[in-house]
Write a structure and sequence with these properties.
Elements lengths: L3 E10 L3 H12 L4 E5 L24 H14 L4 E3 L3 E5 L6 E4 L2 E10 L3 E3 L15 E2 L2 H4 L7 E5 L3 H10 L5 E6 L8 H9 L3 E5 L1 E8 L3 E8 L5 E5 L2 E4 L3 E3 L29 E3 L11 H23 L1
Parallel strand pairs: 1-2, 1-6, 2-3, 6-17, 8-15, 9-10, 9-15, 10-11
Antiparallel strand pairs: 4-5, 5-6, 7-16, 12-13, 13-14
Helix pairs in contact: 1-2, 1-6, 4-5
Length: 311
């Protein structure tokens, strides 16, 4: 059976803070819009235990903040399709096509807010123990390891914050850092250093995990001396960055060496009427606040572009 074709003003791909903000502004502009999200709404912020740097909230659970954003967008009239998988896109020429399992959409404008997925740990046995001791979301999976010894690998704010969060469950948390410094905020690092459950392993690199059916130990290598040793470990969480979700669009959109979508300051890509926002976009800072700003700008630009087409 042929899929139904739907013409629409705007499609937003991705339901994190950037995409939801774009949906809020597009709805206020009374655009005929649709937000498509192939997973749960909220993006990475939903996996944040607490958010303390978003204006207006001294402290808020990431899941709560995501719910508030979604509710606001929907109350303004945004149409949101959750768990809707895009099968194909076509962006060459003026016509834009977004094909899902059920429909073929022809939007006048497209906003890409697909974000980024966690980068896998480059360690031996990563695939063997995926979900069996190797994880990438402390909020999602940390509670599985009550009174266990847990490792976390990374050097940014996320690694520091997740180390603190994991102490709610773990008997001990090793924070494994291949350098002798962290890139995170000083205040968060100070909180980590004061936590008796956390031991920082500076200049150490996790190179493997091992065990029978589940992770039982880790092998770390000193980045200065090259010495290797085993540590008791029942789980490890990777926090070493993210990979932008650009595969659907790479054929048409200009991509940086780091595989992020290149835009100008108004979120415009090389294709008129196509915008990129949030963590999928090439930029220096990736925060909730910068994602929200991106979403605002892209929606306003898309509104202006659509009005020109309608004249």
């Amino acid at each position: 059976m042929a899929k139904q074709v739907k013409e629409i003003d705007l499609i937003i791909v991705g339901g994190g803070p950037a995409g939801l903000t774009a949906a809020i502004y597009a709805s206020r502009a009374r655009l005929d819009m649709l937000l498509l999200e192939d997973k749960v709404m909220g993006g990475q912020v939903r996996n944040s235990y607490t958010v303390e740097n978003y204006p207006g909230f001294k402290k808020v659970a990431g899941s709560e903040l995501a719910d508030i954003m979604q509710q606001q967008a929907e109350e303004l009239g945004a149409t949101i399709e959750e768990f809707d998988i895009i099968e194909n896109v076509k962006l060459d020429g003026e016509e834009k096509i977004v094909e899902t399992e059920e429909f073929i959409y022809k939007p006048k404008a497209l906003i890409i807010a697909t974000g980024a997925s966690p980068r896998k740990l480059p360690i031996r046995n990563e695939e063997k123990f995926a979900g069996k001791g190797v994880h990438y979301c402390a909020v999602c999976d940390g509670a599985m390891y009550q009174n266990k010894v847990i490792g976390i690998v990374g050097g940014g704010n996320t690694a520091l914050e997740e180390a603190i969060f994991l102490t709610n469950f773990a008997e001990k948390v090793y924070l494994i850092r291949r350098y002798d410094y962290f890139r995170g905020e000083k205040a968060v690092l100070e909180e980590v250093e004061k936590n008796e459950k956390i031991e920082i392993l500076y200049n150490e690199d996790l190179i493997a995990v091992d065990g029978e059916d589940f992770v039982e130990k880790g092998i770390i290598k000193n980045t200065i001396t090259g010495e290797e040793k085993e540590i008791a470990l029942e789980a490890v969480f990777g926090s070493i960055g993210h990979e932008p979700m650009v595969n659907l669009f790479k054929e048409y959109i200009n991509i940086s060496k780091g595989q992020y979508i290149i835009t100008d300051e108004n979120m415009r890509t090389n294709i008129p009427g196509v915008y990129a926002i949030g963590d999928v976009r090439e930029k220096e800072y990736r925060q909730i606040t910068t994602a929200v700003a991106d979403g605002t700008i892209a929606a306003l630009e898309a509104e202006k572009y659509i009005k020109k087409l309608n004249k």
